[in-house]
Amino acid sequence: MSESQRVTILDVAERAGVHPGTVSRALSRPEKVAPATRARVEAAAKDLGFVPNKAARGLITGRTGNVAVIVPDITNPFFASLVRSVEHAARDVDLQVLLVDTGENRAEEVRAADELSHDVDGMIVMAPRRLHREMEVLGATPTVFVNRPVQSRASVVLRSADAAGEALQHLAGFGHRHLAYLGGPRSSWAAVERRDAVRRMSRTTGVAVTDVDVAAPTFEAAYDAAEQAVSSGATAVMAFNDQMALGVLARLSALGVGVPEQISLVGCDDVPMAAMVAPALTTIAMPVVEAGEAAVHLLGSAETVQLSGALVIRASTGPADQTRTGGR
Amino acid sequence: MSESQRVTILDVAERAGVHPGTVSRALSRPEKVAPATRARVEAAAKDLGFVPNKAARGLITGRTGNVAVIVPDITNPFFASLVRSVEHAARDVDLQVLLVDTGENRAEEVRAADELSHDVDGMIVMAPRRLHREMEVLGATPTVFVNRPVQSRASVVLRSADAAGEALQHLAGFGHRHLAYLGGPRSSWAAVERRDAVRRMSRTTGVAVTDVDVAAPTFEAAYDAAEQAVSSGATAVMAFNDQMALGVLARLSALGVGVPEQISLVGCDDVPMAAMVAPALTTIAMPVVEAGEAAVHLLGSAETVQLSGALVIRASTGPADQTRTGGR
DNA sequence: ATGAAAGCGCTAACAA
DNA sequence: TTGTTAGCGCTTTCAT
Fold first, then answer.
1. What single DSSP character describes residue A288?
2. CATH homologous superfamily for A1-52?
């Protein structure tokens, strides 16, 4: 067992007293072999510490046993959770995960996809801003897109529209009449879906919405933009994701604005940190575990699976500040 | 280019008017081929969209082009950063990263290592609690351990001792005389190293240290343990990692204990969140990027690379609360 | 500098 | 049910 790749199927065949082909069958399709021989082969393989050579197998079967996972930023807890879920689901179907972190760089996404597509059995692409046109190059490699519906390709979509609508109703119920919305990247499908939902529900509930432009969907950018939200006169702030909401929270705290006493705050994704800050963040919990599993199971198909987020009410939302409401 | 793996070296050979062996040489060791033929081969390969079949190449060379990275928890920002760094460094040397998340499960670590060791060119193991005995099975596969020195194996060690000592001096300079220390897992090399450093510096500086036991190195466990730290009468709290420090911060905030007015707080790792909370956390920044790069470059060697963390002073530490100091 | 030939370890027809 | 045979696509001697 100290030598890494010395025991071949021939050694096993010899020890079991059968021919190499039989060993191959016994190990890969046991039902096609007599129980007795199967037992002998298995024993021999175990004694010798036989491990099949994946390259040799792959050369003939055309399969590698690997699935590529392309993410924009593994240090983003949302993607980290997704990747973890994919990894566990992949293991259950004997696939290994080849991770690529593109650093939010679109050119790198395309390069990685092109390069890897030949060496994997499938790809799971979590790059939200990938252009449709660019992935024609993927050719025949089974690919599933996460959080971006793609025509004639498998995808798993995390819908937040309903939950975002609920959030608005929740705020309206607290007497809020004016919301500042910090949106995500316009090129992101999820960002568009969410903002549209907020707009729609704005009409229904009569809560006015002020859009606040944020340079990037990050803590820092939201920190910088938070003051605009305050000066808009809104009594509630909603952000595209939790990182941004956290940024707003930090800025409000620095400005001495009480949450939720003066301003209520809603995030999205329910990253671990959301529950940890004070006050704990009201947010939209996304079914990332299910999404990861779905992505793996979708490999090879062209279906779209829709999963929905759910509003999680915590301490960062409360009754509207009457001073601010009246003060307009 | 729509077919994934149809163009072989034979097609290229035919188009370039040379023999297959020459194509192979021209592509893998260009210097062993006449410039003219090389150019013809390269042109033919490009025209045809030739992509070498990794399985076939691996079968003969014994190399896979993959390196396995085994982490306890990819959703932990510390490991996520490390993995990202490894991934980028690996790409520079044409290696792909096979990610395994063991979910802090030691048995899973061993299983993954055994299984993968045959199918990768190397392994980078970030499991801090792995037993030495268990990795004999790794056999000849080049392996480097991160954050745990291992005899006769390559490793990259992130030393925090000096920075931890500095942190204590920093606190002593602020007049703190009593520190509560929330340690990490005893089985973790890093935890032991850090605690020893705190002990040593405790003698030097005369700052008394109360050890607070924490069930796990997590936000939640630290949140639960924080009250003990308060009731110990300490004016400063230091935690094994930032997640724990963040937990303490949340609890202190819930208890109405001011940071740093009443209690100063120091974390470790400098995860992104540390700079984002209010007050921003004084912590020890670990050179994770360098560590990831070192891990990749160490593959195949048996060296140990030592990297040191540095104290980052932010807003969570300040002058000792004289009330509490006197009150004992 | 290039051609020819022999496999790497395995699977999958096809026979028996 | 098991044996036999022919490669998968590439690299690498060994000749030339």
1. H
2. lambda repressor-like DNA-binding domains (1.10.260.40)
Find the mean pLDDT for residues A96-124: 89
Give the pLDDT score at A129: 66
Structure tokens that stand for B198 in this block: 């705190």
Which sign, positive or negative, has the C-alpha torsion A22, A27, A33, A35? positive
Rounded CA-CA distance B87/B75 in Å is: 16
Q: Write out pLDDT tens, residues B114-165.
A: 888 889 999 999 976 655 555 555 677 899 999 888 878 899 999 999 999 9
pLDDT (tens digit per residue) in B188-244: 889 999 999 999 999 999 999 999 999 888 888 999 999 999 999 999 999 999 999
Please state the three-class secondary structure of B56-125 as a single string.
Answer: HHHHHHCCCCEEEEEECCCCCHHHHHHHHHHHHHHHHCCCEEEEEECCCCHHHHHHHHHHHCCCCCEEEE
For residue A314, what are its two tokens?
């915590």
- Report the chain B residue with the minimal C-alpha distance to residue A51: B118
Residue type, B204: T
Nearest CB to A250 within list B62, B219, B278: B278
Q: For residue A171, what pLDDT band results from cuts at 50, 70 and 90?
A: very high
**Residue A134's pLDDT is what?**
53
Write out residues 247-286 of A within 8 Å (CB-CB) of B: 247, 250, 253-254, 272-273, 276-278
The strand D neighbours among B residues 61-120, by Cβ under 7 Å, are 61
- Considering chain A, tell me which residue range(s) the CATH 1.10.260.40 domain(s) occupy: 1-52
Contact B276 A247 (CB under 8 A): yes
Beta strands in B116-231 (DSSP E): 122-125, 143-146, 154-159, 178-182, 208-212
Task: Identify nearest nucleotide to residue A57 by CA to C1′ distance.
Answer: C10
Question: How confident is the model over B64-110, as pLDDT tens digits?
Answer: 999 999 998 999 889 999 999 999 999 999 999 999 999 878 788 88
Mean pLDDT to the nearest integer, B276-294: 95
Domain with CATH 3.40.50.2300 in chain B: 161-286+312-325
Sign of the CA dihedral with A169 first, then A174, A179, and A183 last: negative
Q: What is the predicted pLDDT for the residue at B76? A: 87
- Count CB atoms within 10 A of the CB of residue A233: 15
| Dihedral sign of CA atoms A7, A10, A15, A21 in order | positive
Nucleotides of D under 7 A from a protein CB: 1-5, 7-13
> Do A190 and A244 meet the contact criterion of CB atoms below 8 Å apart?
no
- d(CA A207, CA A210) in angstroms, rounded, equals 10
**Is B80 within 8 Å of A80 when comparing Cβ atoms?**
yes
| B27 CB closer than 7 A to any strand D atom | yes
At residue A64, the 3 state secondary structure works out as coil
Long-range contacts of A132-140 (CB under 8 A, 24+ apart): A134/A106, A134/A109, A134/A110, A135/A110, A137/A110, A137/A113, A137/B1, A138/A113, A138/A114, A139/B1, A139/B2, A139/B3, A139/B4, A140/B2, A140/B3, A140/B4
In angstroms, rounded to a whole number, what is the distance separating the alpha carbons of residues A134 and A109? 10
- Inform me whether the C-beta atom of residue A175 falls under 8 Å from chain B C-beta atoms: no
Sorted by sequence, the CB contacts under 8 Å of residue B260 that are 6+ apart come out as B279, B315, B316, B317, B318, B319
Enter the CATH code of domain B161-286+312-325. 3.40.50.2300
